[in-house]
Design a protein that fits this description.
It comes from Pontiella desulfatans. About 30% of the residues lie in helices and about 30% in strands. The protein has six helices and nine strands, in the order βββαβαβαβββαβαα. Helix 3 crosses helix 6. The relative contact order is 0.20.
């Protein structure tokens, strides 16, 4: 099983080719949010035979709004002409797998004085992602969970009282970890999560300034 995975939910993007559960090629970069050429340059550098890819996987967040939308669009564009299956998995699972702790709380900066968080046993989500006020985080996170975040530099003061890594720094999900997890889930017969980005903020409706 050859899986091509895209992970764009944080400020570090990555793509990977995973074969039989092992990463055989991977590219990562720090995002330049003015354009997304880095993604397409990385894909070109990997020189992938798209006909040989069996499935396309994408990280569904939570995280960067535009990155998630682009990830889904690219995966759909690659899979559709070849009629290949697609698979979505929350990006927190890849981050938790990268840390390797028995229990992990993945926390992110949701802006507007809010955070989002989810709790994992290994890489399995056991407490669904929730958008919350800053002061709600203490009650949400189990005492025995290791707290990690792709936004640790922005949330350093908030996370200071939690159990964190010895050298707390931002940790980012990777396409390689994502693809490896998807391979394992497929072997166990686990279906894809909903094939849509995991947005934490509800949609905001702005009334038109002028009548239609």
């Amino acid at each position: 099983m050859r899986i091509f995975a895209i992970e764009l939910s944080s400020r570090f993007g990555s793509v990977a080719l995973v074969e039989d559960g092992k990463v055989v090629a991977e590219k990562s970069w720090e995002e330049n949010f003015k354009n997304r050429q880095q993604l397409f340059d990385a894909m070109a550098d990997m020189e992938i035979d798209w006909n040989g890819v069996d499935l396309f996987a994408v990280g569904r967040g939570p995280g960067a709004f535009s990155g998630m939308r682009i990830g889904f669009s690219v995966v759909n564009a690659l899979a559709a002409p070849l009629k290949k299956p697609v698979y979505a998995l929350n990006s927190g699972a890849a981050l938790a797998a990268q840390v390797g702790a028995p229990k992990t709380a993945v926390v992110g900066d949701a802006r507007r004085n809010k955070v989002w968080a989810g709790v994992f046993d290994g890489s399995e989500l056991v407490k669904e992602f929730k958008l919350m006020e800053l002061e709600e985080l203490r009650a949400f996170v189990p005492e025995d969970a290791l707290v990690v975040s792709p936004d640790h530099d922005r949330l350093e003061e908030l996370l200071a009282g939690f159990r964190t890594m010895e050298k707390p720094v931002p940790v980012f999900p990777t396409a390689g970890k994502l693809g490896g997890l998807v391979a394992g889930r497929l072997e166990r017969g686990t279906q894809s999560e909903p094939f849509e980005p995991l947005y934490m903020h509800p949609p905001v409706f702005i009334a038109p300034r002028f009548p239609a």
